[in-house]
Amino acid sequence: MTQTLDRAGQAKSASVGLLWRVIPPGLYGGKASMLVERAAVVNRRAWFVLVGGAFEPLLFLWSLGLGFGQMVSAVAGPDGRPISYAAFVAPALLAASAMNGAVYDATFNVFFKFKYVKLYDAMLTTPMGPMDIAIGEIAWALLRGGLYSAGFLAVMLGMGLIFSPWALLALPAALLVAFAFAAVGMAATTFMRSWQDFDLVQLAVLPLFLFSTTFYPLSVYPGWLQAVVTWTPLYHAIELMRGLTLGVVGWGMLGHVAYFAVLAAAGTVVAARRLGKLLLD
Length: 281
Prior knowledge:
By secondary structure, the protein is mainly α. It folds into two domains: 1-28; 31-280, no CATH class. The protein contains twelve helices and two strands. It has helices at residues 2-22, 32-43, 47-52, 55-67, 85-117, 119-123, 130-158, 170-189, 199-211, 223-229, 233-246, 253-280, and strands at 75-76, 82-83. Strands 1-2 form a two-stranded antiparallel sheet. α2 (32-43) crosses α7 (130-158). It is elongated and about 60 Å long. The N and C termini lie far apart (48 Å). Residues 1-25 have low confidence and may be disordered.
């Protein structure tokens, strides 16, 4: 019995030692939830700003999906079968909603706290480390993107634009999409030097929104542009949402999930390391 306990203790010590080699002391304190709690308290007074970003994709849905969509007879769905234009556009706007909610929170807000308020410098005087800050900010951006997605899904359900029980997985999928965009957005923010650099955010997000098969099928683009589009993150998000809401589900969906899992992990690591370098050096 004593030998078994000793072996268990040695195994635990070895695992802890491995963890500290991967995450050095001072980088992570297990306090990321405190930053999420702070963001929730602060945004109680700015709730309109928080939810205001959800209206843009809804306006696009009502104007294009229902307005312009009345002039479009049908569009080819993921499996080639014709579907209404509203059913084609709605899942894409759901993906865009998750992207917008995550990206703008993880860029503009993080930059303001980092460069002007010096909030993170104050946080590092507590048991929190750069990894806590990265995880906490990404988690809050994920929650904001998830809030937008949940509201958009409720509107889709009310308008009869959900056609499969697989749509129950659309919200977890939207959270994964938001997580990936938030992580990459925060990582990119650590390289920005002034507000003028945020023109690059718009330069990246707007073409993604317009050309990632949001409003048109992939087949309308030239062959070379189709290859470019299929590598963009919003394209993978849209394909994932369309498949789930329309019931066109296959093993290829796992490729989209893996794409965002890798993107989220890479973004989180880069953001944490950059914050550690900028704040601790």
